[in-house]
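Checklist before submission:
- one chain only
- standard amino acids only
- sequence pasted in full

Submission:
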Amino acid sequence: MNAPVLFEERFTDTGMRLGVATLNAPQTLNGLSLEMVDLLDGQLRAWASDNSVVLVILQGAGEKAFCAGGDLHGLYRSMREHAGQGAWANTYARTFFEHEYRLDYLIHSYPKPLLCWGRGIVMGGGVGLMMGASHRVVSTDARLAMPEISIGLFPDVGASWLLNRMPGRIGLFLALTGAQLNASDAFYAGMADFRLDPADWPRFCEALLHQPWAGGPGQGLAPRSMNDGLLRQTLLAHEPAQPLEPGPLRQHSFLINSICGELKLESIYEELAELKHHEDPWLARAATTMLAGSPGSARLAYALQQHTKLRTLDDVFRIEYVAALACVAHGDLAEGIRALLIDKDKSPKWSPATLAEASPAWVQKFFDEPWPQDQPHPLDDLGKA
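Returned file contents:
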């Protein structure tokens, strides 16, 4: 059986090494399991402390996806096993989210250049892996999204922090609609830094081996700065010549900001719903996805963006962790996964069934810590080391 994550080290002309981690589950679009998370965390930490490793590359196996999300089947099994027992009883879910968020935070704070190759589908947990990378590279055929509203979750993995930092109010729009972004709109939304044609990826990787990387014992800020610059130059040298055309998100940004600038979620939801009849199929699909999605997820995503607007990244991960466990215990997540992946009837029975029922009072339980009062937050040390 093949390992779920493959690791290799490539020697450069200067004797330094590049660490390459490959998510190796192409049959599930490299969906992120707990085992994959733990393997990645351990190896990234080892490479971080190895002075001969000057650059880390994170990629996915296959041609379809970097990573399409997290381990929904595993979460579903754990929810079935612990139904009615409360959020803290589900040991798999609390371990999965804790380890995943720690890995994502590690990538955000990584001490060396870390390039994430976002080829093809980058969604959910894949966005979490990619967003913290120092060099976020999308393929020309990339499709990025946070489609959690369709499964009764919310944009997590630090997405509350990311969405709040997008231009205008497009972050809220993406959370409510799960709209897919092409490479051009990924740049506009601040989710990508560089782009490459998939056909040029092998040539680009070969070019990396011939750069004059700085490193070795005693490396400090200067080599990091130099290596960041070398990586940037190499990426720009392989960038497609064809200019990026504005994508649908940017084309409709004025309309989106006007709608999502409303003060109440109810008004925003109602106006977005009207877009299901829009002549642009991208906007119509976004509205249709929202209307078919969980009203509770819409309320929770909105509340989280409000609640985390001025919070630090480590605080956001802690807040999202509490909300994720609440979704596992008494949210729509189990029903959403059932309808999409288990029974595949695509007819979820959401509870609450309407946005009016998913009221501001209803959503407060998603911010209540489920562990014993004398116990610290499982992510209490995040950002303090």
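Reviewer check: Residues 194 and 236 are 8 Å apart (CA to CA).
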